[in-house]
Amino acid sequence: MSFNSKYHIDVDFEVPKKLQWYYAPAFFGFWLVLYLSLVNTQMNHMPRPLTRSDEASHPDSFIAQRAEDTLIELTRIGPRVVGSMANEETAVEFLRAEVAKVEAEMSELLEIEVDVQQASGAYMHWEMVNMYQGIQNVVVKLSEKNSTNENYLLINSHYDSVPGSPGAGDDGSMVVTMLEVMRVIAKSGDPLAHPIVFLFNGAEENPLQASHAFITQHKWAKNCKALINLDSAGSGGREILFQSGPNHPWLMNYYRNVPHPFANTLAEELFQAGYIPSDTDFRIFRDYGGVPGLDMAYIFNGYVYHTKYDRINAFPRASFQHTGDNVLSLARALANAPELDNTGAHSEGHNIFYDFLGWFMIFYTETTSIIVNVVVTLLALLGIGISIYYMCLRSGCSWKGVLLRFSLTIAIQFVSLLLAIGLAMLVALFMDAVDRSMSWFTSSWTIFGLYLAPIVFGLSILPALYLEKTKRDPLGLGFRIQLFMHSHCICLIAIMLTLTGLSIRSAYLIMLCILFDIVALIINLVTKWHRKAYLFAIAVTVCQILPFVFFTYLCTVALVTLMPMQGRSGSSTNPDMVIAALVWLFSLMFAGFIAPIIMFFRKTRTIVLCFLGITILFIIIAVTNAGFPYKEKTSPQRYSLIHAHRRLHNADGSARIDESGLYIYPQDRRFEIARDEIDAIGEAHKVSDFCDEEMFCGMPLYNHRWNKARQYSMWIETSESPEIPTEYPLLVLQDSSELETPAQRRFNFSVAGPSHMGIFINVKNDARILNWSFNDTLIREQAEPPYMVYFSYGLDDSPLEFTIDVEKTTSSFDMPTLEIGIGGHWVTQDITAIEKLSSYINRFPSYAYIQGWVGTYETWYF
Fold it and tell me: Are 425 and 390 in contact (CB under 8 A)?
């Protein structure tokens, strides 16, 4: 066969005729059908939930209907906010009654011990002191009779909920799962080499106070050697294992045997890097107790998380079965694991772990991962080198010529990767600029056109133009397309080695991409299909099926998780950029080796331009009402609102500010969408406008997250004062006394008020805080004032007494030394019973969910 060029060569290589363009839809359709038939179905695949009628034939199995019935009863209590009667009395009585039912049908081989813990304490959370008083835990120890083993398995979930939410998914579902697991184990009489401690903690939403109370103060805490933590960032679906260990890979040996595995290292790293706007008790057990474990949570349907829509009717029964089967399996296995007798001996470093469609688990250590990454890199480079050698041999081109072309395709591929992310980010910036971000929030299908389509266009257009311009190149079309695949592999190798060097374990994802490309390359070299373009393409297509399924599966999981979270991630970040970056990252993995195959079709440029056309079409759709992001009940927009009275005093006791108003904290990017309704209430001012003049902006900030969101939060002065159900918080200076020198003085205070208060402290006139009775981390680390103390109480509502030691070097104590503000939050009230607050909430659009309460903020100088 001969080529016409400036020289004549005889070679043994098939020059392919391009396929007709109308075969391209069938090619794309193949991948779409593969996604819908396999990935989509497995994403939603759940086990058959067992009912009470199945119990006789499955005596040792988790019964989903039992758990569901228990959750119905638990949620009838209503919102279970720390400090409320519902949480501190009714829920505790409910749990004790449920444990008594378990005890009544328990095997005579086992025994149960119940302890209701009340505790007070403090620790640093975020940038604030997190302080609690009289919060409760219901702790149950299940063990063999006369057991002397002092190494326990801890299983934890929380029964409290956020204000206004019945907390069916978060975290009532896990509470009843634990109760049913306890019942099955207790009734079966299975051997328990190690006792199991079931911790029903009563203050997780505050945040994480009850777990801190248990692990630092409870009599059984020091015996807990491993943990199963159960939480929720959604309502139903499949629970994901997103944290393991740390440094205890043996735990995955037991998790790999659960009936329905669902776990991924990527989720762990995203969570620990702070990209997920949540926290769990797992961190407290790890940091304050050194307890290794497994952290599992629901992530699907995060739209109802922390809202009044988190009800039992939003939680599918099959989810109980999925989670119950897994937790029961883990509890039985870990309670008999010999590693619990000496967990320190099995601490070996981090894991890499992931499931494949929920069918099976793969895991190995981080050290093994580094070795595998290096070996795969060397194999890939060797394979590419051999491939280029054969190109030189079969095409008649010199090795310098082929390497020159290879260098050029690497450059084009690298630019294509940048173009792809650039186009996706351009769309994200445009959607934000025209105030149409989050159009995918309810209609997730729009992500295909808004972000996947421009990415595919960016990946393909430059290679298409290059191949069109070089169609008379003596190096055949098949070889030139192979060079683009090799170029993509080189780019992935660079990314993988960079991630590996940064100790990012999720580099395994890139390794898998490269591995399957190597498999295709080896097959083509061994069979000599690399000489025949279409056979080569078929081998690549077949070898890309598994990675395509796996990476689209992971991408879907990531999107299903992160999309609802953008509705509560604050207003400062453009959420479309998050989605664009995520889709681009996964597109490199599931489409990077598929996109070059498009070049085998006629009218390649037209086919690629169709993706640009799809992008434009979806942008048009997104800016119309079809792209409206919110839907009442199923995907609402979130706001937090306080109808507050704030009174700020001067040094002489007079009030410099005395007004009532609404503090509005929008929780997503599209806060302007309800601007008309907000402006109808009154003139809105940015909270940040007050921050230069007043400590913490002079506002009743609920926690430090609110302080970070002050730029986008609003204050609207109102003529109506809030309906405060009890007395305002009362701060009393009990006395002050001189310390070692006249320049040092101790102030003794007490404060009484509602179950949730913020204590804000600043110094004046060159004063410096030497010490105080709160957690001393801020003082010890010499953090700059002002300071915030988040304080809540459960059963113990006695006044909080605290001391502050101050030193002054250039002024006397006759001048103001301290400014102290107290924010009171009545979060346990039924807002429907507060007429004025309800009237303001009702002015918001129907698609908005408002988490509201009444509050006060008052400051004094001392």
Answer: no
Omega before residue 171 within 30° of 0, cis: yes
Omega before residue 246 within 30° of 0, cis: yes
Check if the beta carbon of residue 136 is closer than 8 Å to that of residue 210. Answer: yes
pLDDT at position 833:
86
* Whether 306 contacts 239, CB under 8 Å: no
Do residues 27 and 601 make contact, with C-beta atoms less than 8 angstroms apart?
yes
Cα 778 to its chain centre, rounded Å, is: 28
> What is 270-299 written as a DSSP string?
HHHTT-SS---HHHHHHHHH---EEEEEE-
3-state helix, strand, coil in the chain (%, to 5): 45, 20, 30
How, if at all, do strands 196-201 and 152-158 pair?
A: parallel
Select from 139, 312, 331 the least CA-distant residue to 228: 331
Reported as a single tens digit per residue, the pLDDT across 305-343 is: 999 999 999 999 999 999 999 999 999 999 999 999 999
> What DSSP string describes 630-647?
-BTTTB-EEEEEEEEEEE
Phi, psi of 648 (to 5 degrees): -115, 125
Q: What is the CA radius of gyration of the chain?
A: 31
Residue 395 has pLDDT above 90, yes or no: no
Q: Percent of the chain at pLDDT above 90? A: 89
b/e per residue, 114-138, with b = 16+ CB within 10 A? eeebbbbebbebeebbbbbbbbbbb
- Backbone φ/ψ region at 223: left (φ over 0), alpha (ψ -120 to 50), beta: alpha
For residue 503, count other CB atoms closer than 10 A to its CB.
Answer: 10
Structural domains in the chain plus CATH codes: 52-349 (3.40.630.10), 367-627 (no CATH), 637-861 (no CATH)
- Is the sign of the CA dihedral 620, 626, 628, 629 positive or negative? negative
Find the Cα–Cα–Cα–Cα dihedral 660, 661, 667, 669, rounded to 10°. -150
- Kindly give, in sequence order, each residue whose CB lies less than 8 Å from that of residue 391, ignoring residues fewer than 6 positions away: 397, 402, 475, 479, 482, 483
What confidence score (pLDDT) does residue 5 get?
A: 39
* 3-class state of residue 466 by DSSP: helix
Integer Cα distance of 231 and 205 in angstroms = 11
